[in-house]
Every structure is written in structure tokens, then in C-alpha cells.
Write a structure and sequence with these properties.
Elements: E1 3-4, H1 8-14, H2 16-24, E2 46-48, E3 51-52, E4 60-62, E5 68-70, E6 76-78, H3 83-91, H4 93-107, H5 114-122, H6 130-139, H7 143-156, H8 162-175, H9 179-191, H10 198-210, H11 214-221, H12 233-246, H13 249-262, H14 268-280, H15 284-296, H16 303-315, H17 319-331, H18 338-350, H19 354-366, H20 373-386, H21 389-400, H22 409-421, H23 425-437, H24 444-456, H25 460-472, H26 479-489, H27 497-507, H28 509-519, H29 525-538, H30 541-557, H31 561-573, E7 581-583, E8 587-591, H32 597-616, E9 624-628, H33 641-651, E10 657-658, E11 665-669, H34 670-679, H35 683-687
Parallel strand pairs: 8-9
Antiparallel strand pairs: 1-3, 2-6, 4-5, 7-8, 9-11, 10-11
Length: 688
Amino acid sequence: MAYHVSSTPSSLFHNRHTLSHSLSSSRKLRPTTSDTHTFPTLHSRISLQINHVSLQETPKTENPDGNSESSSKSYVWVNPSSPRASHLRNKSYDSRYTSLVKVAESLNCVGLSESDVFDVLKSLGDGVLEQDAVVVLNTMVNPENALLALKYFQQRFKPKREVVLYNVTLKVFRKCKDLVRAEKLFNEMLGRGVTPDNVTFSTMISCARMCYLPDKAVEWFEKMPSYGCSPDDVTYSAMIDAYGRAGNVDKAFSLYDRARTEKWRIDPVTFATLIKIHGQSGNYDGCLNVYEEMKAIGVKPNMVIYNTLLDAMGRAKRPWQAKKIYREMISKGSSPNWVTYASLLRAFGRARYGDDALNVYKEMKEKGMELNVILYNTLLSMCADIGYTDQAIEIFKDMKSSETLKPDSWTFSSMITIYSCSGKVSEAESMLNEMVEAGFQPNIFILTSLIQCYGKAKRTDDVVRAFNQLLELGINPDERFCGCLLNVMTLTPKDELSKLTDCIKRGNEKLGSVVRLLVETQDSSENFKKEASELLTSVGSDVKKAYCNCLIDLCVNLDLLERACELLDLGLTLEIYTDIQSRSPTQWSLYLKGLSLGAALTALHVWINDLSRSLESGEELPPLLGINTGHGKHKYSDKGLASVFESHLKEVDAPFHEAPDKVGWFLTTKVAVMSWLESRRSPEVVAA
């Protein structure tokens, strides 16, 4: 008989719930020996409880009279310093457990044959117990040798609950993320007539999750009822994550609602999945709600949670919330990692928070973190959109200095756009040549930027050459490209407009027809409005305003004020321009934000005429009149509409003056505007 100091090892098999909990735990299975080595002072007497560890009978001990009685009623008092106490300690299961762990560690070696594994296990002796097998298998990490060890134990004894041996062997496969072997062993278990239990399925489900196979996890979960198994709260919580990753969003949220009602324990991984599901469906408020619910029940967010949430806020273009979450993360003592910085950089880059994005970039470089091509391109694209030319040049140099990264077509596209919009023709052409040498052909975005660049530089022939290059590459001009050509026409001298008219006609026939009516022929007003209406109705909503703005600008350049007014009226009719004017008892206003300079001047002309007609008809003007131009400026220019418009107002001697306390507003009084309108009625002013 084997004796030990504590009775708890045998209780491992007498209490099924304890067994299930221990096998599903991530800790190594080790019999609790709370009474072992707990010695009082030398003045006390020690009670040593002697128990049999056999699984086949109730623990008993022999009393001095030779009669068996329950060990719970038999005590032997031993002096802790006596040789007998030392002997009993050596006989305890703690000592046995240590030897079992060493055996398991030796079985983790690779390259062992079946005979090698069996020889190692024979060192356990002939009295090997079921709980010995559980400890050995539970400690192993080598899947091949674990199968051989299981085979050895099955040959040595008939376990009372063979499913336990299979469960701990399945745990070995879970450690190794080997679902294929786990499924094969499960089928073998069924073939031997062993019925799986909850622990079996929870192990298979968690193995599938660790292998990033959520569909398999769902498959195993849905098998449970057919084997008479009912999932517990932990398994249900894990399945929220599995269903979410498998794409069954409704089931995931159904389980989550149940989890909140029944107060299941949900791990951070599951919360991260829920946040990700909301983010992918565009429900960004749902992301924040899950985050707040998680904190409310006391679950501490980990880095996966923070990074998933930051990524969602980036895709939502909510950089202010990304900032708030990041500050909260730092205040809780979490340290940002590469994924954190990447999420922040994408969030700030997409929202065009230039300074914040550049600060993240600098911090990453200071910490020695390498950016990938996608992050570099995010930064360069942002710089192109907000006009950060110098910063983009430095970032591009940094990228090229990397030994592992090479610019791709998007990198070159951003740089060519930056140089083109800055009017740096030679630099843009040099970047195009570098791009071609790197093996990339220019795409429509790059050629659009180049045409804009050549147009600003008044290099009309190069514009035509770039257009022909587009066609030679087999690229069909799209509406944005044709819009760029139209914009270039507003910058082109009158004597060279005919060079571009043909390009526009070849790119977009309807647009070409409208342009020809402006540049080459003076057709009837009705025919022009019909052609222009068909054009603006046919193009996409994303280019309607750009087309209308450019056509009006072209009219203003050609002194075709009547055509400009017709186009403005058409834009209002088609709701391309909305809310340009407003009237209240105290103020009449003209809103020009979003209009090109030509369109704004045309709108001002129409508004002034409306004021004159109101005055002539005896309509009462309000005490205050205002023009709002907005306060922004062009990203690649130091001038905005407000500064240009101020010069024009002075030129026509209009009594509107910039309001010191309202940026972008030019205001005047009823008395001043009435006097000015009266002065415009004089024959000299009308003639001018």
C-alpha cells in the first residue's frame, strides 16, 4: 500500500465537478496538499492522516488491533523532528507528484520511439495509478509521445473514467494547437465506446479557437447536445467570440444579451471580438457601448481591447475619441505597442489630423519602431491632402533609408501629387521617372496630378502630351480626370484653349460639347442650358459641383457673364448649390463657402441685382447684410476665398467690411448698402 500525508489526491476523482474545473484550467494539475508540511511548533503534537490512494476502494487504514476502520477516524501523533515524520514526508504524494513531473518532462523530448516511451513509463513501477497517468499526461507538451503514453496507461490498467485520460491528452493537442490530431483522438475515443463529457467538448472548442478556426469551434459546440452535454457559462461565453469570428453575428449578440442577463463571466478576448464585430458593421457607437459595459462589470481592458477600439475609431473617422481612449489607456498604466501606434496613425491620417499623425510618427521613430509601407503611404497620402510638402519629403527620405522597405506605386503617387500641387514641375517629373525605373507604370491618379501641375505652370503642350500618354497606356479618362482637364482650362491663356478643347471632347463627349459652345461658338441661350443640364445630370454627384464651378470660372475668364449666371441658376435648380442665400428680419446673407472664385463672383453679382430689385420695388431691407466666404485657405496656397474676395469688394467700392469678431464674414448696414446701390444707378457706373 502507498501512504501519504493528505487525502486530497483521491478526492480528485471522487468529486467530478472539481475534476472538470481543474482540467479546464490553464494551470498544471497538481493534487492539493494543504495539510502536507504544515507543522506547528515543537510544543504541539502533529496529526498525520494516513490514506490509501487507490481508486478502487474507499481509503482505509489498519488500526493496532488489525481491524480496518475509516481513515477519517484514525490519527497518529508524530514528532515533526522524528525520523518517522521524515519517512512519512517521503511517502507523501507530493514526493510522488515531483517524480511524475520529471517523467513527463523526459517524455517531452522529440524523436522517442514507442519502446523508449514505454521504458520511461516503466520507471513508475507496477503500482501505477489512474491519477498518476492524469498527472503525467497533463504535464506533457509533446503530442506524439502523449499518444504513446496514453496507449501505455490503457494497457496497464482499466481506468474507472477513461474519458479523463482522453481529456488530458486532448489538452496536450490544445497546447500544441493541433486540432487535426485532437479530432482524430476524439474519433478513437468514440470507437472505444468512451462517452465524451463537457470537459471534452470545452477542450475541443478552445483548441479550435486557439487554432483561429472559429467555424470549427461552432461545429464542436453544436455537437454537444447530441452527446447529452450541456454547455456551462464559460463555454457559452467563449462561443460569443467563436460565433462572432465565424460571421454569425446574430448568434454572437444573442449569446451576449443572455450573458448580460445571466451575468456570465466574459473574457477580454470575447469583448474584443464584440467590438470588432460592431466596427466591421459600421456601428461605432456599439463599439463604445461594449467598452463601457465591460468596464462597468469590472473587466480590465487589455491591449487587444484598446487596439481594437482605436482601430474602430480610426475607421469611423473619430480621431477625438481615439485620443480620449489613448489617454485613458496611458492613465491605466498600459504601455502602447506597435499595433497601438499603427492604429493611432491610421486614425489621425484618415481624418487628416496632420500634427497628431506626425507626433505619433516621431514617437514611433524615437522608440525604434519600424513603419511598414502601408503606414508610410497613410502619412504621405495625408500630407498630399493637407499640403504638408516639406514633411512629406522628409518622410519619403526616411522610408527610402530603410533597408527592408521599398516605395510602391501608391508611395510614388502621393509624392507626385504633392510636387504637382505645389507647382514643382521638375520634382514631379523626376519622381515619375524614378517610379518608372522602379518598375511601376503611371496610373490615372498620377497622370491627373501631372496634368494639374502642367496646367498651373501654363505648359499646355505638356498637358496634351500627358493626356495622350494616358490613352496610350489603355486607360479610359474618368470623370475626375476630365474635371481636372476642365480646371486646367480655367488656368490656360485664351489663345491656347483650343489645344485642350479636343482633349476634353475625346475624354467626355458631353463635356466637350458644352466647352465648345463656350469657347468656339456663341450658341443660343436655350441650347446652351439644355446641353449643360444634360451634362450636369449625367455625371456623378461627387463631380457635379466641381464641373459647375469650373464651367462658371471659364465663363468669367471669357467675359461671358450671362452664361455664368445661367450656369449658377442651373446649379441652384439641380441643387448642386444649396442654401446660398438666407433672409431673416434682422439680416440678409450670402453664403459663398464651397464655391470657386468665379462662381462666388457670379453669385455676388446675382445677389446685388436681387438687392437692387428689392430696393426698387420698395421692399424693406434688414438692418444688417452679410457675405460669408468661410475662413479657410487652399491647402497649397496662402490665399483663401476671403482674401481674394476682400480685394474684389474694395475694387467695386462695396461697403462690406470684414467683421473683426466673425472670421470669414463681411458685413454692412442697411443705410450703407442703400447708398451704394443708389450710386450704382448712375449712368457712369452702369456703363462701367
